[in-house]
């Protein structure tokens, strides 16, 4: 028979071993739970990052859409306006070509053309179309003018406008058509 002390030692040893195993199991469980928590945190952070990116992308799309809508409202009629410019040019030429005698004989016709021209200018103004009307002697500006020819003309400086062939037009802040001009190449 075993000694009671030996039995107590065996019991204590088995109890200690069981407690160590229990402790190790609990530590492993805690480690697993910590790993799960870390994985959940990483997943949460990834989802939060995705959400923030999607939110930023939606805001950018909204801003682009607003800009496109404003530009469509402001510049959407540019093709029609550009197509109307030759009508304006032809009416202006008709008025300029009429002699005083023709104006007397055809006063009603001339008045009708002038009224139509005035109405066309009003419609242009209503939609943000402005006329670029350079004068002879003005400086050539490549942002507003198109040089149709260059010629030396005494009494002028190089870059002076010496002839206006056609007026130009802007739609708000964009050029529809530059004014067509002749430019002096004279340097003396």
TrEMBL record:
InterPro entries: GrpE, GrpE_CC, GrpE_head. One of its GO terms (cellular component) is cytoplasm. Keywords: Chaperone, Coiled coil, Cytoplasm, Stress response. It comes from the Bacteria. Belongs to the GrpE family. Participates actively in the response to hyperosmotic and heat shock by preventing the aggregation of stress-denatured proteins, in association with DnaK and GrpE. It is the nucleotide exchange factor for DnaK and may function as a thermosensor. Unfolded proteins bind initially to DnaJ; upon interaction with the DnaJ-bound protein, DnaK hydrolyzes its bound ATP, resulting in the formation of a stable complex. GrpE releases ADP from DnaK; ATP binding to DnaK triggers the release of the substrate protein, thus completing the reaction cycle. This is Protein GrpE. It comes from Roseovarius faecimaris.
